[in-house]
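The authors assume throughout that readers already know how a fold can be written as discrete tokens. A single example would do more here than another paragraph of explanation. An entry of this sort, consisting of the sequence and the corresponding backbone structure tokens, reads as follows:
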Amino acid sequence: MGERYDVIRADFTWVDGAMRPGLAVAVSPRTGRIVRVAPPEQLFGPDMGEEIVFAGRALFPGCVNVHSHAFQVLLRGRADHAPSFRHWVDEHMYPLVCGLDDEDLETAMLLAFADMLRHGYTAVGEFFYLHNGPDGEPDEVERAALAIETARRVGLRVALVRTLYDQGERPAQRRFREPPARAIERTRALAARYADDPFVRVLPAPHSLHGASGDLIAAGAALAAELGTNMHIHIAEQEHDLALSRERYGTTPLRALDRLGVVNERLVVVHGCWLEHEEWELLGARGGGLAYNPLANMFLGDGVTDLPYALRAGVRVGLGSDGPGGNNGVDPFAEMRAADLLQRVTRRRMGVIDEAARAAPRPLGAVPLFTLATEGSAGLLGFEAGRIAEGWACDLIAVDYSDLALQPHHGLEMPTLLHNMIHTGSSRSWITDVVVGGRVVLRDRQLTTVAPEQLRARIARLERGR
């Protein structure tokens, strides 16, 4: 192969939609990409460096969290029983925002990102909007860079989905708001700062129809085209978003974006719980995407996104956790399970997602839900990740297939093991090791990047100060 490579192997490896024994993964330490997948004896040679063996394990591509607000992890347990979404925002999320200094913000992100890693996420799309200081005044601190550096410190690949926000008069919204020209320039500068880092992407993200003006949404789309990235935006999460869209734009949310000229192959809508069939068809025809967060939508009482219709319409779909405080968990397999079961109970029958996947114009593999949570999410963030194949990011999870929660698996060559992973228990019980870019960041269920006792001490200091 001509340059040094390391070799990672386990008993079985998920390749091309099947569990395959007797394969190993060669990874370039320089690029963090897979250079070959082959039997191990074909990889032994003078250019081989370290050999990493996960005995009694099965290797899968790592999952990608397409949508996160990591700081909201500090709402866990405090806002679970809010009577409404509006109350959750006004009485819990906004007060948290107003009282969060940079040290607390870093602690929250360390906790959330570490939790993601332990549950099998290897990359995250961090939709970040705490741009100004706690007093709401603009300063020169680029807190989005703090989010990037914290994710990398934990070991995650990260797409910083930098929010553009110029609307709103509530005190907490002062932390989010920026003049449009400043928002665009700082996003452009952040992208330039990390342009050469293969583990980082920077994407512009007008917050929503209520958080960003039409001019800023259009400017965000232009910046995405300039940077060669996608543009993410919250739309149609809550039913009242429909009335707001009609009040401001005289039409439904996606049609409003179409009037602004931004519905194209770069557009990724977040949530979309209340989009109409014609809107899904428009989004699919233009090559757009959906960042779907089923558990958070359930937790916050948002509604049920018509995922089957979106898939049939050709919409590119990824799965995310949303903010941990609007979910209380960051388990990608729980998201897959929720995405499936929501459609079953809504339509009162089984097999809904599989049927939609077969009818979708985009191939979704042997286990469609897993494809959405890996390749699907990665594509919406601009990463070549989510597949164990030459040229792709070497982001892997090792699974203890002897775990009782995964029994019986009826022969490991079948996809039954992966079905059990989606529909049984918590991934914390059977994910033992995680690799990002060829680097082991979780070994034998222990983080190699962040000491748990130090993180607990930071959380204790934060709690004493609140």
The chain has two domains: 5-61+387-447, 63-381. The CA atoms of residues 357 and 364 lie 6 Å apart. The mean pLDDT is 95. The longest strand covers residues 48-61.
